[in-house]
């Protein structure tokens, strides 16, 4: 929901006055004060909840009347009196102060559509703009730093980067100078010209410029002729395009240089460390501003920051090692709830659970092919009593080993086995990122062994399960891709056709739109990839459904058919979360740490106003815990500070307890999501939270 303060003169839209109005009202009701961002120059509340409209709806009718003609902008503190004998409902006082604090003559109205932030894959125009801006960046760098050698400069999702060999490095001051030089180049309206040259001519020109990295790139180009793009008559680069026609097509106020990072040439730590300049480019300044607002909101939601603030997990690189996750009590509690839900729903859908070792003989990985094709992602083998073992990077060979330990008829299939299996993969230190990319993680793996004519039903079952699990955590928008047979593959055309048709039929039954990546499947089978959309529109790759004709062949898997003959089963790999650690990071960023009520580590915080109510508070806490409700008690501080601390900790339900509540057997309830809920009996609170737990509800 996007909201605009429309009553003020247009010149005040996005002003400090509007910002103070929103933040003052939000702080007065004890709610989060989301950052105020601009969309097409108009102030609006960010996607964080609750927004201004919800705040205004919560004030009393007289309070709303007071908000029609406010006269000042007071600086208002959280209005909870930390005194004994406070009013029965302390939140009514908050409502009155919030009403007096609103200072705009504005009315709340629905805003126009926000600026769309398209990726390079979604917009050919933006792709060209970003690619050309990367070239302009390199040209500007070599104007200012002539000894800097250029390497590669591709477009990326919402911008570009360019890598330079420049040992001195680039400072923030340098970035500002480079951007200024880029704007000069843009304003000169230089044409971009494509030229085709022979390989020999390209080599001659590169050697004249003394650009060794470009020579290496030239050697990697297999097609003829070689293409070069010129910016005016001053600068050129090996490039296949595409580009805009002139630098003037780039809006000088719609570009920015964001950061500098180190990057090994060709991603190889044995090669030189380069300086990578990241930048962004858009069609209009409004798009750039919307992108900066988007980045600020993403930074607010960063799971590394939120995880530390809420004490959910840590990665202790210095003391223990990089990419290894420590789950703290609150995070471990949430992980346990996720795993229990996952196991329960799998058992309901006809899966059996497996637990397999963390290591296995190296021969297993040789048979599976991982030792040959995946060794760069595997840790070094371990010698144990004249035998060689390997930390597992995958669970699938172990599930195959369980299958080989049995004897199966066609009547036994399909077999569905699921495991929360921890795997270990080598990641370079520079590539690790919070929970998103680690060295030890838990996959929610499952493998289905079935007959060829069972593929469609099994895939449909997997898609149904995927939708049910992801939607339970609030993810209900998906992007789906189907990857088909590549040029080199195992398995005959008949089984590939049958498998691809089964995947398409399952997607059709779901009614899901999807894109086809022709030839993009693995060599051992076609697959479906599912991306989820989060609260701020980002796409995250999570779920994969992969058919496999390879492992059954490598491990000589078989079942007995109706004719008492051995046949190969079809193997289906599937993961829904992908990685539990990564999914937890996505979940944290989606909710910015304000988790759904059913999964929040602390669901209720009891806030006694006076020591006289301690017995009642402890009795209430015992009753809540007996009902399976996670609660704690905080006291020994002023009530205002207790409430602020609960808001900061993003506790879903706060219950203030004074002498009147203790006498009446009630609680003054306030929620993080929706504010004041009034005075409720303890039984009502228990019933509502129990219902949320049972139904996996987000709110009180």
Give a quick precis of the structure.
The chain has 700 residues and is of the alpha+beta class.
> Major sheet: size, sense and barrel closure?
8 strands, mixed
Principal-axis shape equals globular
- Note the total helix count: 22
How many angstroms separate the termini?
20 Å
Helix share of residues? 25-40%
Number of strands: 32
Sheet with most strands: strand arrangement: 15-19-20-27-24-23-21-22
Classify the beta-strand content into a percent band: 15-25%
Radius of gyration: 30 Å
Low-confidence stretches: 1-109
Supply the helix-strand structural class. Answer: alpha+beta
Output mean pLDDT.
85
Question: What features would you highlight for this structure?
Answer:
700 residues, disordered N terminus, single chain, five-stranded antiparallel sheet, 36% helix, eight-stranded mixed sheet, alpha+beta
Describe the structure.
By secondary structure, the protein is of the alpha+beta class. It is 36% helix and 23% strand. It is built from 22 helices and 32 strands. The strands form nine sheets. An eight-stranded mixed β-sheet has the order 15-19-20-27-24-23-21-22. Strands 5, 6, 7, 11 and 12 form a five-stranded antiparallel β-sheet that branches. Strands 29-28-30-31-32 form a five-stranded mixed β-sheet, sandwiched between helices. The longest helix has 21 residues, at 124-144. Mean pLDDT is 85; it is low at 1-109.
